[in-house]
Amino acid sequence: MEARLAVLAARLEELLGAGRVITDPVRLRTYECDGLTNHRSTPAVVVLPDTAEQIAGIVRECAAAGTPYVARGSGTGLSGGALPRADGVLIVTSRMRRILEIDIPGQRAVVEPGVVNLDVTRAVRPHGYYFAPDPSSQQICSVGGNVAENSGGAHCLKYGFTAHHVLSCEVVTPDGEIVELPADGPGYDLLGVFVGAEGTLGITTKITVRLTRLPETVQTLLAAFGSIEAGGGAVSAIIGAGVVPAAIEMMDALSIEAAEAAVRCEYPPGAGAVLIVELDGPEAEVAAQFTEVERLCRDAGAFEIRIAADDEERALIWKGRKSAFAAVGRISPAYIVQDGVIPRTALPQVLAQIDALSAESGVRVANVFHAGDGNLHPLVLFDDAEPGAEERAEAVSGAILDLCIEHGGSITGEHGVGVDKSRYMPRMFTDTDLDTMQMVRCGFDPDGLCNPGKVFPTPRLCGEVPGVRRGAHPYEGKADLF
Amino acid sequence: MRPLDALAKVCGDVRPGEPAEGVLGVEPALVAAPENVTEAADVMRVAAENGLAVVPRGAETRLDWGAPPERCDLLVDTHRLDGLIEHAAGDLVAKAEAGLPMERLAEKLAERDQRLALDVPLPGSTVGGTIATGAAGPLRSLYGTPRSLVIGLTIVRADGQVARSGGKVVKNVAGYDLGRLFSGSFGTLGLIVDATFRLHPVPAATAYVVCAVSGPEDAHDAVQTVLHCAVAPSAVEYIGPSGTVAVLLEGVPDGVAARARQTADLLGENAEISGTAPDGWGRYPDGTTLIDISAPPPALRDLLTLLGPDIAVTWSGSGHGHVGLPAESTPDEVADVLGRLRDALGRHRGGAVVRYTPEEVRGEIDLWGPVPALALMRRVKDQFDPDHRLSPGRFAGGI
């Protein structure tokens, strides 16, 4: 290890105590990647703080040493947002996992960043509440990570993303201050931009989340269609009828085949596509809408519809969908999970184009998607033993993102940009757009030490703002007047 | 070249300002009304070249909010930026220019049985003004505020550069969300020229359950009853001084009817079901001073106790509300109510911000109260507007 990093590590150990600072190369390797395993980098130092004050201290030490740092929750991110820096410190929040307060009358809870998403729901379920964001990794992902990534999940179609369920964050800023960023305070909505900034604006140390009342009833159906087009038609019809389901998920034939091989979900044989539609809410409301959804599916050509009679049957319906990503391992030695978004109405057209891409390149693509909000998760399959196969798969995967942009969509709906997609950002945004976003970053982190190299392809030099003020701040002594 | 001439070269509608157009008494030297994003960008560029302080103006419904600008060399009026650029009904998305009045947007969207799920407390207000002031009403309980519904935003920066964030899909985490940052930024970071919104279907049926309550305890109990039951209301409001708790239910006809009955049963014999909203619903309370309050549900009892039975107030189950103080309130009385609100709500991690108040009061009170992370806000402001020419002094902390 470089001498200056060794000095920093020693200072951090003074700050945190023995056992909270890892420099042993073997142990450091545990942290070399997050959920996106094709990007790896072993951090120079890993720290395991217990408190916000400790994180503030760590950040101040890093700032003084000019050393970059990266925060990491459970490490389940899929865009390399928590990829460490070989020349930096990795701040792991997984020891900070206390639920500090549950306020049912106020419909909120205060949690530390390392608290596991599903643990919030487990804690408040007895009171009739839950924490709505439900990324697929919710059994292990942390709320702090959800904040960084603005995580969604299958049910965000109706309930929105993490940004809609966070009322306030306590944050350690890149200058080592601890500040509160409320959603509803005077001044700028800094929380609004902090959530989803992928850990580039600071580290959250305490999160006040909104709790959502558990629905009175949940109804789930699985509809099988001959083709993706027919399934897409059903989605359009459901949305067009003014129904807002809790979730609408679709899988194509290849992903059904994979799920079948992995978990024997026993979806209807011969299906070109299956659709899972879930409605939740008051019984009287759901009953009426469910009948309509069923009819719309039949009208769109569903040849079989299964309705979950109870939670067990519901779990069975979801089993195939939830296992789909991992299941693809059964039909392909390796694969890339893509995450792109298109306007929902472009679904049939884009899927046809993906098919064409696949046919041209000979690269197989399995499609799993949150159909209600046009969020595609194409799984691009390849054999990593075959020379050039990964490159070809990468090319197809990138071309799919181009299709998303062409149709007015996005290069990521929920996995984030991280290191994985920063190179695609200029395809979606102009230099000025990116420069403007980075003004926020320069305001928060002028030295660019907080999770550098993520989101943006090229960092903005924060000192280059024309007319930037030096010396006494023009507001000095004035603010108290207001 | 004089600024007026330089502006006239790039924008078809430029003229000197008039005394009646003063922003809280600060008369604009010039007024420019760009017709499109190119003109808007050119206007902002010329303003930058000439060091002009710029205040954006929509329909003037909230131009008297906040503090007066330190200077106003140029009002940028958005009334000619009034198009509905796109309504992708199948995608439940619409893109509108900043100057489009909210009611006109609503009419257009209603043609396809859709809506932007934001109340319009002040008739005439525009898309841009609604975003810039973060305005919302009772529907915020379920649908949120502009920050939740803006999915794409186009702005012109202080230097005249056009920047976009977000896009036209609801689910999108690419890049920073400037839509949320600009929501409620009161024209201090840039000029909003258009916005793309997430839409919702117009519900097939709606019903209000209205219940008279007697005093803070009763109000608290009624609100808590509704919040913790399974009827899934779209909004829960307290309206005072009449002392009414009202619940909005939206959905399919049979469902709404059943849920309305269920809600009325829960609220007891005073509850009535109505097809129309009660008086005061979705409006700011009367008065010449308007105070915006953040007060989570458990704070309602304290809030109503300190206000007493006569002060006008509306409060939403989402934990946000407004207090109106009458014209005869002296500066001391306003300061007193404000101080007590901040004390009481502060204990619930809430707060109080004065939106408008007569000039003689404004100078005597702190409009904003404690502003957390103010230093950070100033640094963000310095990045977007290093010369402090955009609505200077209008915002929290003198920003």
From TrEMBL, chain A:
Cofactor(s) recorded in Swiss-Prot or TrEMBL: FAD
PROSITE patterns: FAD_PCMH (PS51387)
InterPro entries for this protein: FAD-bd_oxidored_4_C, FAD-bd_PCMH, FAD-bd_PCMH-like_sf, FAD-bd_PCMH_sub2, FAD-linked_Oxase-like_C, FAD-linked_OxidoTrans_Type4, Oxid_FAD_bind_N, Vanillyl_alc_oxidase_C-sub2
Gene3D superfamilies referenced in this protein's UniProt entry, alphabetically: 3.30.465.10, 3.30.70.2740, Vanillyl-alcohol Oxidase, Chain A, domain 4
FAD-binding PCMH-type domain mapped to chain residues: 39-214
Protein's name according to its UniProt entry: FAD-binding protein
Record GO terms (molecular function): FAD binding; oxidoreductase activity
Keyword terms of this UniProt record: FAD, Flavoprotein, Oxidoreductase
Pfam assignment, any one: FAD-oxidase_C
Organism whose genome encodes this protein: Actinomadura soli
From TrEMBL, chain B:
SUPFAM superfamilies documented for this protein: FAD-binding/transporter-associated domain-like, FAD-linked oxidases, C-terminal domain
Cofactor needs: FAD
Domain FAD-binding PCMH-type: 24-202
Record has Oxidoreductase as a keyword: yes
UniProt xrefs under InterPro entries: FAD-bd_oxidored_4_C, FAD-bd_PCMH, FAD-bd_PCMH-like_sf, FAD-bd_PCMH_sub2, FAD-linked_Oxase-like_C, Oxid_FAD_bind_N
Gene Ontology MF term list: FAD binding; oxidoreductase activity
Keyword Flavoprotein recorded: yes
Transmembrane segments: none
Annotated keywords: FAD, Flavoprotein, Oxidoreductase
Alphabetized Pfam families for the sequence: FAD-oxidase_C, FAD_binding_4
PANTHER family: D-LACTATE DEHYDROGENASE, GLYCOLATE OXIDASE SUBUNIT GLCE
Record's protein name: FAD-binding oxidoreductase
Organism the protein comes from: Actinomadura soli
